[in-house]
Fold these 3 entries.
Entry 1:
Amino acid sequence: MPDDPTYESEVRIPSDTALGLRVQEQIIEVLRSHQFSDKTIFGIRLAMEEAIINAIKHGNKQDLEKFVQVRYTINEEHFLIEIEDEGPGFDPEDVPDPTAPENLERPSGRGLLLMRAYMTECDFLRGGNICRMRRIRE
Amino acid sequence: MPPTQRRIETEEIGDVTVVRFVDRRILDEQNIQLIGDQLFALVDEDHRTKILLDFGSVEYLSSAALGKLLNLNKKVDKMQGQLRLCRIKPEILEVFQITRLDKVFSIYEDQGIALESFR
């Protein structure tokens, strides 16, 4: 475990999915160095991928002049991440339940479902522009 | 323009096309697009109607990739074909279970049993 038990970082990227993937890889490395288990990292990676892609594609509509801000904290208790876009926001309540039989083959809502399933908490703030997710250590 | 990189490998076993994925992580947006295009071409251009997707090498899968699989399933259905999935790692299987897509796709543990299911 690193000397300082709390690690904080922040990165701001243009709305490019390749850059989003690079940020994820960097965060995964930090999680590994803080002894998060492979199983926990698997879930965090999936949830982060979905949240960052949502911010870039659905939030900022892949407009390279718009940015995605990623802030995260790791401590002995948890991993906390906030992903903020510059888009119009959205109401998560409007997203259909993808597990309802009539929606099973529809494209939307599955990413949000995975984020909620793999993270301990997943909330949307400021009209849906900020996704805050927390994962408690096992 | 550089040639498009193959993101899937195919093998004909009897009348079944077995598909293996080149990537361990099916997360990257551009790769997912390529994988989708190459899978769809099996049906639209090569007219394959019995397809077995072998997930033995896949370690991560995003919801965008699941969307492509659903579209492939629809295409195969439309051609009155059959799509099967096999050798999905437990962590990935959990993704199918959470999204209830384990109810939509025919999933087999073993490639041999999956192949037999086509007959």
Entry 2:
Amino acid sequence: MQDFLFYLVSGLCIGSIFALVAVGYTLVYGIIKLVNFAHGEFYMVGAYASFGTYSLLPSSTSPWLAIPLMVLAGGTAGAAIAGLTERVAYKPIRRSGRLAALLTAIGVSFLLQNLFAFFSQARPLQYPTEPHGSVGEICQRTVLLGTDGLVLIRFAYIGAAVLFCALLWYLVLRTRFGRAMRAVSQDADAATLMGIDVDRVIRHTFLIGGGLAGVAGTLIALQGVTEPMMGFLPGLKAFVAAVLGGIGNIAGAVVGGLLLGVIESLAVWAGVPTGYKDVAAFVILILVLVIRPQGLLGRVTRVKV
Amino acid sequence: MSWVELQPVLCQVGILAILALSLNVLCGLTGLLQLGHAGFYAIGAYTAGCYAIYATVPALGWCNLIPAAAAGMAAAALCSLVIGLPCLRLAGDYLAIATLGFAEIVRLILTNAELPGGRMFPGETIGGPTGIAFTEFPGQVWPGQEHYSAEYATLPVIWLGVGVTYLFLLNIKRSAIGRAFLCIREDEIAARTMGINVPRYKLLAFLLSAAFAGLAGALFFHQQLRINPGNFNLLKSIEVLLIVVLGGMGSLTGAICAAFLLGLLPCLLRHLDLSGVAFLPAILQKPLSEYSMLLYALLLILLTRLLPNGVFAMHELPTWLRPRPKTSPRRKAKAPEGRKP
């Protein structure tokens, strides 16, 4: 039973990360109907930026100052790369069909992965755990939950997810910009007629989504490794989470992310071999697409002539 | 570049060409975006591998290739039904992601599952991360056949496979089936109105595409004789998709030409070296082959922007090579009637 608690909590932690990334997916999809394959790469760029910040900071910096700074840097870098990608790659092909958009997104994803692999010599980076009280050591500290030790920093995932989702909820439902976002997602042409600068809304949506992915990447890398391919699988899983909750629906993305994390974790608890853990996400994806393509919280849209 | 060096590269080009041709049926002709082609390729290769391990009859020689290829094609086609049936309702991006998910499931299962070694490798297992190797036989299996090699897929055999695939699919493209595929690609609702059974044709496209991917897999196994799950990752699917886009969605000739281009590219790049170029910073001074992944990605982005229809569009020959009709029907209509030459 205590085992169950451990897997449940650890699933919620990783699910929070999925939720943070999935929200970005769903925001972008809601507004320009693009499956942004490169979203996982924003996550990876965030992790690299925070590592860069860490190595720039003097070693005497208190980790309680360093970690927030690194998260900030990761978020900023994620937002910056998302904005750049939107401007350079997605904007010029916005009108040329969904296939072109999807292919471009795959291309951008591969380009970013390989750029980082090229310049980092594909060496995984890890925060040194050596001096007691350093960033790396603090992030490896565990708390005993039942019989297993859960890495303490993972609770920060839940904290970050709650914080940023609350901010996003406020932004989307309570501000003028949020109203513009909702208008564009309903009908971009009509929104233009109402005097909304659609380009600006799209740009800012990418910035928000990229920022959230960057924060998520930073948090994951704090206790794991930073490497060029790190964004690929979480990116795909976050997409599964977004589909699970109903793509284009922000609350759905959060619910889907948490659910996916818990399902994956409980699958291991129930005796599924760890090697097959990743299969669970894709099986869920195909099941959802077959049984309820609009997702848990989505609404059915009918294609009309 | 010597012939010995070029031969395996040309074999790879042939296998890529079969893959691209088969993907073209689904992506190019029917307009169903598929990101999991490597999954069917893997199923074909592993089926051929299992046939080789469990059921090879050495006395049959190269004839073993026929049941192996047939089994590979059948297994891939069967799996395409498993994924195709539930995915029929999906369109566009969703289908792409679902097929990607399918390919990842296949790859993860192949990485994790292990089979008994049979009489070939008694007491050992095959599969798993190291895959299947059919090169060294620890046990004495067949008396008098110690140096048995199943390397049947030589260059002519592979290109024979390309030819068969090309002709078969070209005939499909030019038949009523092909026209139905094209109609579904252009407008699904219109196709339905014209009385085309859309789900049936979509499933047929899935089947055809998967079967030939299975053939490519079987040939790949019999050329390499060692395969592992790493051969069939997402990168492979993307590479094949890139070939289809470059050649032109729906152009079979274009797919073969693009397979040549992209298949020979890494080989050419290997012979160019930037490590001696003085004005470049040290980090860029690498053999050009290390740039090939970057190049692929850039090519995909630039192609979709600059050449959205590919080199051949959907025709079998590019515009400037196509024979022009003697008199266009329009000019004929304009010509004054009743006048003698």
Entry 3:
Amino acid sequence: MSHLRDRILGDRVALFGLTVIAVTVLAALFAERLAPYPPDRQFFDGLTLEGAPLPPNGRFWLGTDLLGRDLLSRLIFGARTSLIIGIVANGAAVAIGALLGITAGYLRGWIGTAIMRFTDLMMAFPALLLAIALAAIFSPSLWIVALVIAMVNWVQIARVVYTETTSLAEREFIEAARAIGAGPFRILLQHVLPHLLPTLLVWATLGVATTVLLEATLSYLGVGVRPPTPSWGNIIFENQTYFATAPWLVFFPGVAILLLALSFNLVGDTLRDALDPTQRGREP
Amino acid sequence: MRTFLTTTALALSLLAAPAGAAEPTQGGEMIVTYKDDVSTLDPAIGYDWQNWSMIKSLFDGLMDYVPGTTELVPDLAESYELSEDGLTYTFKLRKGVKFHNGRELEAADIKYSIERAVRPETQSPGAGFFASIEGFEALTSGAAEELSGITTPDDYTVKITLSRPDATFLHVMAINFSFAVPREEVEKYGQDFGKNPVGTGAFRLAEWTLGQRLVFERNPDYYKEGRPRLDRIVFEVGQEPLVALLRLQRGEVDILGDGIPPAKFLEIMNDPEWRDNVVEGGQLHTGYLAMNVTMKPFDNVLVRRAVNHAINKDRIIRIINGRAVPANQPLPPAMPGHDPNYEGYAFDPEKAKQLMAEAGYADGVDTELYAMNTDPNPRIAQAIQQDLAAIGIRAELQVLAQANVIAAGGEKDAAPMIWSGGMAWIADFPDPSNFYGPILGCGGAVPGGWNWSWYCNEELDALAAEADAMVDPAKAEERIDLWRRIFLRIMDDAPWAPVFHEQRFTMKSDRLGGPDAIFVDPVHIPVHYDEVYIEDGQ
Amino acid sequence: MIGYIARRLGQAVFILIGISLVTYVLVYLIPADPVRQIAGRSATPETVESIRRQLGLDLPLWQQYLRYLGDLLQGDLGRSYIQKTEVATLIASRLPATLELMAGAILLELLIGLSAGIYAASRRGRPADRAIMVASFAAVSAPQFVVGILLLYVFAVQLGWFPIGGYGTLWHLVLPALTLGLLGGGWYARMMRSAMIEVLRQDYIVTARAKGAGRFRILFVHALRNAALPVVAMVGLDIGIFMSGAVVVESVYGWPGIGQLAWQAIQRVDIPIIVGVTIVAAVAIVLGNLLADLVAPFIDPRIKFRR
């Protein structure tokens, strides 16, 4: 793994990604201490007399939103929402996808066929529409939104894992293990899974980027996490009608989403380059 | 879903032509913009704020309102009579009124049109308005094919007999659901009649390109002399409110169908060049917080009063840039029966906390607040949430699509509190009874009903029935008085915390003429299409 | 080839039936009663029940679904509950706007993505390459609504070069198509770059170079044709995705496409529209993939129809 560490730390771009992720994680962990104000505190003097939000100033560093709340505090607490959803939803998607993909790829037979037919079906489903419909059906909370995203995102992972498992299952060392009488469960655990780990790790990292974006999109459409919990997406949703007069309300959370998704993508890509045996050794 | 009203005093301003204004001219074209396409123009089906007044310009009913007012006048009827027992109305029809297809209107058309609205196959959302007509149950249950209460002694006479006296009946004859449609056209188009409307109104539909535009053109056979004033109205749909505003400022658009976009509102109102293009008026709207009186903790009247004291209405109005006036009772100021002397519950968090303690909730209580998910409703709900938290009511927000909130409100134990914004009650016709039955009476406190506070006071229901049986015009004053008492009694029980009454702001281009009253007409949104005109020389 | 198409279309029918079933069950779970929405506030319980019967919503779920499926197989998508218009008519009325945006977006994606990808590949390892790669990552990491709102703010509100949303002329199309094109272009750039690098390394390029063919010819005649395969597959995917409506971009720009139709229908529980749009979108996804597979052999004769 030291090879991996060198790869990532030696790459300025990946290092940048790691830094952003680290900063976001710290913000999420220590939100209570870092945020200047409670995120849902509506300041009476946080709005002008006519009800317009305040631009960035000495008291509210990034200005206030349409309810007179401190935007900086909401962004810091919003990091928590994004990360929780990114990790939980994507973790669930990887778990479901891996489970189904391995099962289908290793067992084959009618179970495998059924699983893969179902995956084909889900591939043809308009994903965003499905997510919106699901989120609208179940009253959205943090966990429901995570679940909805997981239900949309597992499909691709299942396909990739399936393909890899099928090719692994035909490899010699698996045959050998089978020949010495190892049970299917043991083979899976000891021989197949370790070979899948790099793939899963890459997907788990890249997937966080997709998840963060999807959460923001759902929140932007008003079917994401429920207010007053701040999320970077719902900050934009709540304030977008004012973008012409108060662009900072869209700009700051927008940049936050972009940076976090970008960082996970950069780190994931470097991981893929480092871990994928077929790509190893290729020119820079 | 709405009808509006300002005070009758506006009638005077309309009758007296504004001094110095150009003479009303005939002809010309007006452009109105909307974001969404029009859903339907079938008078028995259309029930949203956008098609409501478009339908009024394509079709006519027996009764109508004097433009700019809520004063009832005969329309397709030339005159009407009420029998001694207050149960039978006899309408004499105007002669020579023609449908857009050239056929003359007859009494049978009126009977057909009302029966069509009641008949279950039509799926009209307005069927319930005709419940007082004799034979209503028989027709809705399928036991009869027609309404026995409507007869046509001759081609120009319609007799309508009621099963109970109904003081609001003439208003019902002026709502869109009762408008006259020609049977042969309805049968020709079937379910698509709403896309091919044929009526007797001032305009007829000339073109409808789905998702792009509708064109109304002047009905040359319209019975009212000198109306409509315009030759054509073009409705451009799919136009973002922000774009529409800029186009209006460039002189390309005359009326913003969706109103002034919220983000630009302050800018326009503070701009001396444009401030005068905005006409402000009241409307028959109340935004309220419904508290479910069958659920804890709102089964306790002290808690409900505490909530009324806890909400900072001025701050909420500030959040929506002052586009409303604070409310302290269900009836809006422009509605007959509103009590201007009633003081209501003042904003007083200390008193509210005291009431909470008295009710046994000194340590606070957890509950839920439902609201619709379109701006500004989630923001208003969060403001209410903070106000309630200050007196110990910790409300979790459920911000959902409109249909889901309505569904939750129609279930007895689902929603402890609902913020009505976005679905709020706007009167169908300017009469206080319309603010009672479905939303505060026992009749609405049923599964699937609209009485989201599930407040049912049988004593008040009896008083309401008594008021609506007072059909004698001489007793009108007394009747309104009774309604005033009913609504104040409701405020004692506090099933609602009324928050504000929305104001209307209509923005028009420089070249549009007409008295202010028609730009905030109580029954026509955004403007009275038959009455506006293009000012001379433009 | 005819047999292949027939087999693929056969699979598609099963996928579509499956999708209609899943969607139908999902929508059935929505805790809101569509009949109440139709019947309005003043409806009597009798009216409500009678409307429910007429729409067949009093039947058990499986009967409702079979009824729907029967109509669907005859090409009937039903009528909107709220607008009372044929769902097929409603979708058709949104089709021109959707197709226009789709065409504009795909064109820009290709233009931006391919040129950036080719350029990056030709400068492999140099600063320009790295910059393009980071930019392409930024593009695929940017939320559509933020890019949309910012483009709108800068180019329409501040500079006034383009209309502030809406639909009509080619000018209206530029910003929404650019939003989709910029973001989608990121994927194309990455794909094009790695495909190019792969191709450039292959022997025949070396041979061609040895024969003295110009750099331009190498890049465009040999490499582009081979690298185009994954690009075609991706365009096929994009057709499907854009057909389900670019909900977000449409709502930012007020573009009257299928996405807006679906979003409004979800808000109002207008079930026939929700199911109808999902099915039409799924048809587009399936057909888009099929189209890409059919075009592939013409680009690269070595490829035979699979399966």
